[in-house]
Amino acid sequence: MSEESSEKSLRAPAKAVPLFSFARVWTIASSTVTQLVRMKTFYFLLAFALIIVGIGNFNIPATPAKELSMIKKVAFGTMDLFAWLFAIISTALLIPRDQEDRTLYTILSKPVRRIEYLFGKLFGVLAVVATSLVAMFVICAIMIYSRETLYVSAEIQAMEANAQYTPEEMQAQVELIRQQGLRPELTVAVLASFLKASVVAAVTIFISTFASSSLFTIIISILVFLIGHAHSLLSNYWTTQTDNIFVIQAVKVIKVIIPNFQLFSFSEGIVQGAPIIAAVLWQMVGLTGGYLIVYVLLSLLVFVDKEF
Amino acid sequence: MSELAVEVKNLTKVFATGLLKQYVVAVDNLSFDVKAGEVYGLIGPNGSGKSTTMKVVLGLMAPSKGSAKVFGLDSGDIRARNEIGFLPENPYFYKHLSGAETLKFYGKLCGLKGSELKDRIGYLLDLVGLEEAADRRLGGYSKGMLQRIGLAQTLIQNPRLVILDEPTAGVDPVGSRQIRDLILRLREDGFTVFLCSHLLEQVQEVCDRVGIIFKGRMRREGQLDELISVEDQHAMTLEGASPELIEKIHALVEEEKGAKLIESGHPRTTLERLFISIAGDKEKGEKS
Fold first, then answer.
1. What letter does residue B162 receive in the DSSP assignment?
2. Minimal-distance CA residue of chain B relative to A25
């Protein structure tokens, strides 16, 4: 065969590829959702539902309003705990597993940028965390609403039997219970839990880029989360207990690196009826976005030169 | 001059291992190129540096020294990877996805969508004979099926260069033969194939040129025919020859000064060919 004819039968060059593609990020994100769903991670919702049913059957010796407030607080606290724990565990199962199974080989040998892979994984986890939170909120809402209805009807019955109360007094009493029941403001508490879980997921992605296994990632991430929760407490203690410049500088570095997760715990106040300040809420959304960008960039710094 | 699909120049790859940072030279000043449209085999024993070289070409590793280019683009360039289809030694895919979903996932990563992607998936499933298993999850695939879906994934974006790492490792002889036939078909269709293997007989059957790598260095390289022909020997295979004719040939050789008969006897088939013929006969018998 002549060289000319063999040249003719060669394949044409590939189409141009964009240097960054949201479509590739979306493909990895949707595949991550499928992966987490098929790994049956949503089974934890069953455990959550059982806990919520248990919480709903608490019998606390207090007024109906206080009892409802207590149940709501414990239910939303459990939801918050499940959200960040789920964010850590599901994120930790992704990148280390792709490395262990070497699925990363085949993905990164396609025209995929490493930052697209990281963003895809993060957005996939966030989508699953958001879906879980919505499902958990629905479970909580059903429980709280059923308790609220029960307390209101029991209170009305008791007051009517007593025959001492005016309709206005009865209405005030019912209103008191309703204030501790299912209120639209509770959706903001769900958003607060989502923001916290998002930052936790971003930190976990960063840890997983240099971790050797999923277990290591989970342990370190939980440790970071706990340190982040005791942020102010630990830094105040260390800076007042020592004048060692190295310790003080180390504490300052840790304060910069590890997010202050206490700031993200504002859902507790909302659940207890504290007013929602829009400016604070936007500030927290902005802070979350900032942390996500910083941690994805830090992850990229480790991941970009990683050899497989 | 033919276009170069792969151009590796003075490639050196050094790994630091352990806490004391001991250095291991995996690839040492390696240079070779693969011309567009040819099948090139890089052969060598385990640990000779084949996979490291392949990973540098794929952009999964950066060279310590030297360079690797794919169709003139640096191997770390994302555009170079769009020209490559890669089949790893053990197909590493998500086991929770079905065969069709796997191809869809990789196709989308390469920018395919809509009817173009759907048609491509259908064509490739047909090509590798996995239409019936298209909706089955990869967790339930056999090793041979995984290798075939891997090959389909390799070709999803219709790349110019196909890189195969030990393509027939762990596959039974029939599956192995199918993969070799597919490589030959790829060459006919104008693909460039760069494969690494330590199974020499298979490389011999499909490659135009080979490079022999040992301890990270290129020891021999060239056209397969040139490398394996023994210049001062000549082989003849006779059919229907009588014992008298054989005797005569023996006598003639003995008469010739300086000539020596090295081997004579019934040619043997390979165990692999025997296995394939038996398996083929059995399959035909079951069908009839």
1. E
2. B109
